[in-house]
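pls design
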């Protein structure tokens, strides 16, 4: 075992137990004694990257506080002295030394190099030698303002500054003056810094820069303002074009409507009497051209999204998403795709970038940055929130592009209710949407509403496949279906057409993977804005607007304060490097470091320089999948897969927090490693998922054939034979594994060759899942045993926390508190929206 591995193991072994759901990260002073762990079986140690040394945790959850204003910037005149003060301790930290050794600095040269850097900080010459301007200092000021919130901020900041300083003439001279740091070491540091440098984002897209300046047309406004419609009309009128959006569901809808001729092109009008299509997911706005009749917007004359297709407006369009490609014409240059799939070497007449405010999203924002800077189009329509306008202008300042901003107003009023529901779900009415932020909470609320009011509820949450979410939205919108209330997560805020009269927040905070946090101002506004969609309600004056309120009285002031607060302009665009960039970084690292795929994440986090208005996407969530990939592919031969293979697997949409999906992904990697071929059957049979699908599918068919008694009015199973909620989780996991296979089938065609079988299985899972949602049991699992449903033949029982336990049907487990592993499992399940 290497020195690095031994040190890492000591770090993990000495780490306190993982925090529970409401325990934030805190600093602990050196004199504070760590509390002894609670009794119980030990948890599996967490794998930390060499750059993520854990900090001790306190046992108290800080009160949730609405962040109305951003943190106060750190005083710029104090930055040099503050950095010197923090570096005094930082340079002695063992994990800093270990990281620098991994990056190629010999161990005996680390201390003198860091000492030289610290002296330069004390002399306050570092920032001056690097020619930091006003924008750079403002960025440092904002980063240091967040230091108390993010314990790794100062570590990453000093590390990046160290490598940038070493690359400067002043830094090189100071390092040579130590007579301990060799020229070879300095050269290796400089090569790593230069390869990892991403401070000039504009130059990374030569195709976009080789054409004349683009015309950027921004369409900005709140939810339900119809801001996307003019952009889509321009796309329909162009000879070549592309739509890039955040969801497969939206990309599919644009693709379908363009091919059917349902979007009226710019410069053309629909026929007299053409019926507008109210059932669209585009921006949640009106399908009418409001400007055509400004004196009477409630009865506009010209629909721009019409229900029936018009051959005059039909445009051949291809669909490209991560897991689906529908090529109708190889020769056409018009496509609808998810934002990650945008090609950057093809020229388009018109391009549409949807939901531009996601450019600051810590996990996906880099794709919007790439699209904004790199789309090779004569005219780019950028749609989203007003908060993105200043940042977009700043990013495009040096591109020479012309920018026009069109602003839109909400087409129906929105207000905060005068009172909450007082915790009483019997006050839920038809047309309401209750928002909860965990899967378990959603089904709990759904069950209570149906039991207490008799109103049936549709559901929508992130783990559901987009096709099922869309179908649940259709059930809710159709007054004849009987599903008059929607219970969902924040997934309702994007990409769904919903006829919501009132949005009710069951909670105003959500678990972010580390701690419980209040929703942001933007999240409050986006979710609440789904109420009162224009054109979807009756024309009565009292029914034109939407209402937002809360379930509990104590949450209502928070909601009201959030809705009254202004949305602050975005300040950071996230950066996502191209896949080939990681290979370039690995080439300049020592051979020992290349064996660990996640070392690239370390470089991005602790070496890469970005511009003052950019920041890397969050790297912390990438360590676990990369470490798992390394473990799986190396466990047999020690050689494993190529760097390219590992990068493809790391980018695959694998839900690593789902135990079944992670298990299936591990098996898939092993098969790929050993056989270079993976079958659909092998990965979907994990944890009995395929058998589970067959059991529920059989029950579904028997209910349709009359072999099982069903409610003659609704066609649903009686309450005693409902599907247990845990079954939905398994079907969702199976669907995710199929999606992973399809995604890989477009990138490793020979190894994942059963695309047709995967598509058929995907369709079957969606059909069964849709039926199971209508027949799910809302009862809590029994403390003593399995769900009483002999038709399903389940081979698992559940404890009092709903955690599956192996056993025969009807087997009774002993009473007693749930194991700590069960509680950890429950928290992971609750975090899956």
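designed seq:
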């Amino acid at each position: 075992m290497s020195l690095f591995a031994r040190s890492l193991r000591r770090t993990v072994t000495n780490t306190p137990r993982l925090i529970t759901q409401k325990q934030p990260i805190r600093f602990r002073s050196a004199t504070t004694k760590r509390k002894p762990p609670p009794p119980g079986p030990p948890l599996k140690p967490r794998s930390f990257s060499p750059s993520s040394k854990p900090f001790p945790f306190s046992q108290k959850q800080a009160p949730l506080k609405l962040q109305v204003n951003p943190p106060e910037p750190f005083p710029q005149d104090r930055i040099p002295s503050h950095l010197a003060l923090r570096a005094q301790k930082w340079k002695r930290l063992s994990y800093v030394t270990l990281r620098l050794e991994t990056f190629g600095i010999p161990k005996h040269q680390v201390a003198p190099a860091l000492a030289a850097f610290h002296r330069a900080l004390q002399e306050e010459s570092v920032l001056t030698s690097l020619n930091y301007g006003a924008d750079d200092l403002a960025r440092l000021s904002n980063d240091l303002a967040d230091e108390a919130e993010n314990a790794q901020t100062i570590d990453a900041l000093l590390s990046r500054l160290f490598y940038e300083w070493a690359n400067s003439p002043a830094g090189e001279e100071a390092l040579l003056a130590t007579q301990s740091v060799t020229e070879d070491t300095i050269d290796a540091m400089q090569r790593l810094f230069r390869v990892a440098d991403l401070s000039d984002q504009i130059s990374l897209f030569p195709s976009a820069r080789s054409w004349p300046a683009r015309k950027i047309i921004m369409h900005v406004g709140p939810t339900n303002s119809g801001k996307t419609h003019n952009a889509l009309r321009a796309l329909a009128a162009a000879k070549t074009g592309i739509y890039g959006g955040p969801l497969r569901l939206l990309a599919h809808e644009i693709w379908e409507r363009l091919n059917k001729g349902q979007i009226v092109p710019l410069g053309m009008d629909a026929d007299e009497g053409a019926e507008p299509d109210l059932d669209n997911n585009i921006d949640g706005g009106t399908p009418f051209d409001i400007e055509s009749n400004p004196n009477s917007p409630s009865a506009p004359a010209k629909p721009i999204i019409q229900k029936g297709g018009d051959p005059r407006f039909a445009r051949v369009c291809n669909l490209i998403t991560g897991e689906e490609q529908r090529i109708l014409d190889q020769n056409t240059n018009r496509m609808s795709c998810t934002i990650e799939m945008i090609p950057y070497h093809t020229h388009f007449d018109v391009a549409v970038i949807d939901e531009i405010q996601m450019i600051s999203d810590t996990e996906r924002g880099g794709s919007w940055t790439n699209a904004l800077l790199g789309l090779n189009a004569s005219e780019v329509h950028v749609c989203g929130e007003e908060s993105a306008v200043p940042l977009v202008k700043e990013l495009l300042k040096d591109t020479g592009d012309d920018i026009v901003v069109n602003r839109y107003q909400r087409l129906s009023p929105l207000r905060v209710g005068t009172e909450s529901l007082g915790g009483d779900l019997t006050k839920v009415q038809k047309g309401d949407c209750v928002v909860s932020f965990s899967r378990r909470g959603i089904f709990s609320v759904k069950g209570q509403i149906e039991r207490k009011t008799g109103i049936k509820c549709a559901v929508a949450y992130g783990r559901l496949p987009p096709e099922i979410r869309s179908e649940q939205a259709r059930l809710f919108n159709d007054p004849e279906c009987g599903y008059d209330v929607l219970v969902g997560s924040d997934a309702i805020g994007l990409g769904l057409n919903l006829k919501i009269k009132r949005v009710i927040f069951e909670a105003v905070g959500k678990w972010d993977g580390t701690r419980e946090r209040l929703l942001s101002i933007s999240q409050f506004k986006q979710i609440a804005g789904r109420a009162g969609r224009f054109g979807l309600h009756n024309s009565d004056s009292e029914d034109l607007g939407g209402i937002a309120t809360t379930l509990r009285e104590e949450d209502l002031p928070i909601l009201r304060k959030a809705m009254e607060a202004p949305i602050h302009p975005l300040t950071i665009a996230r950066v996502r490097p191209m896949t080939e960039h990681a290979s370039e970084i690995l080439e300049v690292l020592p051979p020992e470091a290349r064996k660990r795929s996640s070392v690239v994440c370390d470089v991005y986090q602790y070496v890469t320089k970005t511009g003052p208005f950019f920041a890397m996407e969050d790297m912390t969530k990438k360590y676990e999948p990369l470490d798992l990939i390394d473990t799986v592919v190396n466990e047999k031969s020690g050689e494993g897969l190529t760097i390219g293979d590992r990068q493809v697997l790391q980018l695959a949409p694998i839900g690593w927090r789902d135990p079944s999906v992670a298990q299936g992904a591990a098996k898939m990697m092993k098969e790929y490693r050993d056989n270079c071929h993976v079958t659909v059957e092998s990965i979907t049979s994990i944890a009995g998922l395929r058998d589970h699908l067959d059991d529920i599918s059989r029950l579904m068919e028997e209910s349709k054939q009359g072999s099982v008694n069903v409610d003659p009015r609704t066609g649903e199973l009686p309450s005693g034979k409902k599907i247990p909620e845990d079954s939905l989780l398994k079907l969702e996991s199976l669907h995710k594994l199929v999606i992973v296979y399809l995604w890989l089938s477009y990138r490793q065609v020979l190894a994942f060759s059963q695309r047709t079988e995967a598509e058929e299985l995907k369709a079957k899972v969606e059909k069964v899942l849709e039926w199971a949602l209508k027949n799910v049991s809302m009862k809590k699992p029994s403390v003593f045993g399995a769900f009483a449903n002999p038709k399903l033949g389940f081979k698992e029982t559940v404890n009092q926390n709903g955690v599956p336990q192996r056993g025969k049907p009807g087997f009774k487990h002993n009473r007693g508190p749930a194991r700590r592993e069960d509680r950890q499992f429950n928290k992971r399940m609750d975090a899956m929206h």
